[in-house]
Design brief:
2 domains; 0% strand; mainly alpha; Death Domain, Fas; 195 residues
């Protein structure tokens, strides 16, 4: 199945009636009034936009404008993620609350203690050179932010499969055992409820 159509389908099911009406109103100049009145859901609107070549997998500016106009920043960011990575992580593909707390604590410790070796750690986690280069370009003089952004990229990429144990394993794989020990210590404090 086409990932772009899957994305549009998920957008359609998350639109309220009011949001759909707003989008239809905004499309009055591009789609005839008669056609617009007969539309019952987002999928029908997206189908017409696809037919008229106003939106496509590699042409999302019109759709982005519509979503921004109805103030659905969550959908705009999903669309941007799709454009950047060619894929979509569904909201149910996120780690549970406990794992996110652990990740946040681990990332804090890693950012404080891993310096210039951060790329080696990211390679162990499977992040591509292209993504790392993009992060460096966005934060050219801030080593800590480069690492933090790269770790966020890893979290987005892995979704619910992003585990703190993978972070510790990557650190140990890079012989950063002291940092790995500090992460484990922080996590045991968190799990014991003293933090």
């Amino acid at each position: 199945m086409d990932p772009f159509l899957i994305l549009l389908h998920s957008f359609s099911s998350s639109l309220s009636d009011g949001e759909l009406s707003s989008m239809k109103f905004l499309c009055r100049e591009t789609i005839g009034k008669g056609k617009l009145q007969s539309l019952r859901n987002g999928m029908e609107l997206f189908s017409i936009l696809l037919e008229q070549h106003l939106i496509a997998r590699d042409k999302v500016a019109f759709l982005q404008g519509l979503l921004k106009s109805i103030k659905r920043e969550d959908l705009v960011s999903q669309l941007q993620q799709f454009v950047e990575e060619g894929e979509v992580n569904a909201p149910d593909d996120q780690p549970d609350v406990h794992e996110r707390r652990l990740q946040k604590a681990a990332i804090e410790v890693i950012c404080e203690n891993v310096g210039r070796d951060w790329k080696m750690v990211m390679r162990k986690l499977g992040i591509s050179e292209v993504k790392m280069d993009r992060v460096v370009a966005a934060n050219p003089f801030n080593l800590r932010e480069q690492l933090a952004q790269s770790l966020r990229e890893w979290q987005k990429w892995k979704g619910k499969d992003a585990k703190v144990t993978d972070l510790i394993k990557a650190l140990r794989g890079c012989n950063l055992n002291l940092v790995a020990d500090r992460v484990e210590q922080e996590l045991s404090l968190l799990n014991a409820g003293t933090r």
